[in-house]
Amino acid sequence: MTEIATFLPGPHIRVISDSTRQAGWRSATLCRVVNDRVVDDFELPPIGAQTIVLMTKGRAAVEARGDGGRWHRSDYAPGKLGMTAPGRRVALRWRTFSSEEKETLHLYLPGRTLVDAAAQMGGRQISPEDLPDTLGADDRVVETTMLAMAGAAARGADDLYAESAALFLAVHLMSQHHERDVVRGAGPDDPRLRRAVDFMHENLAGPVALADMAGAAGVSPFHFVRLFRAAMGEPPRKYLTRLRIEAACRSLERGVTSITDIAYLCGFSSSAHLSAAIRRHTGMSPTQYRLSHAGS
Fold first, then answer.
1. Contact criterion met (CB below 8 Å) for 160 and 200
2. Are residues 31 and 107 in the same domain?
3. Which residues pair with 106 in a beta bridge?
4. In terms of Cα–Cα distance, which of 152, 151, 219 is closest to 180?
């Protein structure tokens, strides 16, 4: 029998229902909690369970970051999901912007359950890095199943129900959210890629790490590179550099900002770095490019 997942309450949340323990479930833990309206920084330690959090009441702006990464934001309303893979440490902060309290349903599936489900699906071998880890996801199947589990636990359903539902969810997660499958069918309109590209546009002036882009997409860096290259036809770093060059060219065409300032605003370390990039892209120096577009 799979060991029960461990729920670790923190100072910013209050458990209002823990019927799975009352029902004696051993295959999953499900808790309904009320969250503080404003939390500036709340760290969740790594645990050995796949965590899924479903917003059930209220609206909030939620931000998350992994170890040493940037903050990534998603606006939450009822039905939105957050997922944290086993063994992942994550920091959270949020602002509730509705009159209702922020109420969430927390489901903890033992990581072993997902590994076993993957092994039964064609004998896949997975690591914790492959398991779902994302912010602001939409998945009607997960939402409906979690609500059904909460109702069943409240009615006193035994652990056979929990075990069956946990296995069903594990298979669904492996089919729909398993990161080795993220490349299949992905295109430029994939919402994960749109989030990553939006993040690039918003951060052209500053340093952008691969982990930051992957965090915006909600997948691991390794799988983000594969996903991005398959959908966009080039690596994410090359795409980001092209965005910066294109932004610099637009600024040069306007003919107002100095080349040094353009380099800074578009994320180049120096005017010399910008000059080399512009020359590779256009065959001209920044000054020549600006003059060629004067009066256009």
1. no
2. yes
3. 31, 53
4. 219
